[in-house]
Amino acid sequence: MSSHPISCNLSQLFRLKSPQFIIIDNCHRIPIQGYGHAYTQPPHPFFSLNNVLYAPHIIKNLISIRKFTRNNFVSVDFDLFSFTVKDLHTGTPLTRCNSTGDLYPITLSSAASSRSHTALVAMSPSISHNRL
Q: At the top level of its lineage, which domain of life is listed (predicted)?
């Protein structure tokens, strides 16, 4: 990876050293233009989103639950209507978000991001990228 910053809505955004892609169901390749970091702002609890891929052709922001829980020392509980993010050590609920559709959306306000609608998704380890 290169440390040459590029322009986008994430803080500390950097170009990749070589071209990389996100491959979706129909083998369509979506180019990744870089990676960076983002942080939530109030009214939400502080969460860090490290090594976020910048792929401008993706319609929705997606968060890997595995990466999110590891980076923030939290657990995520899902039910039919919502999910709750809890402190891993104490079990204290940090935030709860309702869901009415197929995804579990969360609004994460970031000082560096204009995209506010994000969805938590379970990602398979076999996915062709490792920085979602």
A: Eukaryota
